[in-house]
Amino acid sequence: MSENEKVNEEKKNGGFVSNCFDIVSILATAIVAVAIAFLFAFRTIGVVGNSMYPTLNWGDRIILTASLFEPKNGDIVVTCQPPKTDAIPTTLVKRVIATEGQTVDIDFSAGVVYVDGVALDEPYTASPTNDREDFNGPLTVPEGYVFVMGDNRNNSTDSRSNLVGLIREEYVMGRALFRVKPFGQFKIGQYE
């Protein structure tokens, strides 16, 4: 083997090792980037209970923003406000109905929710809102709070109940972006 052939063979072998190192380096960087994104920007949460039916079902897993954001009407959020009783889970998945300064009222005989005197168009609910819980409205949401309800209105313990009440914004963990389980039902649906 000539000297040139030996040099070319060494370059080929060195190139292969270099390419393998580059691929491993790229994959490691991608894994670290995804881990950091899920640590600081996103979280996955499992849905427990039927209070968000038909939008979300028990056992669904959702990805939510874990960064700071301002809750808006129609957002599906995950809250971690300490419960007033052990009967209520610490983590709740609910829909924001009203934010600070807005007034909520509910006509339970008609099953209609009003925010600032306007009836909400709620195609996402399982049925009309006929369950009063402890709600005595109209109620104006104070600064720093949100009023939340489940989409399964007659099977949801939410801001209508004294067991949950209004949710302080600091306890809103994030807004649901999309469903990752079950597979094939990716979109959650955003209604405002």
Percentage beta strand: 25-35%
Structural class: alpha+beta
Q: What is the first-to-last residue Cα distance?
A: 75 Å
Order of helices and strands: HEEEEEEEEEEE
The radius of gyration over CA amounts to 25 Å
- Average per-residue pLDDT, rounded, comes to 82
How would you concisely characterize the structure shown here?
The protein has one helix and eleven strands; from the N terminus they run αβββββββββββ. It has 192 residues and is an alpha+beta fold.
List keywords for this structure.
1 helix; alpha+beta; 192 residues; four-stranded antiparallel sheet
Explain what the structure shows.
The chain is α+β, with helices and mostly antiparallel strands and 192 residues long. It contains one helix and eleven strands, in the order αβββββββββββ. A seven-stranded antiparallel β-sheet has the order 1-2-11-3-4-9-10. It is elongated and about 95 Å long.
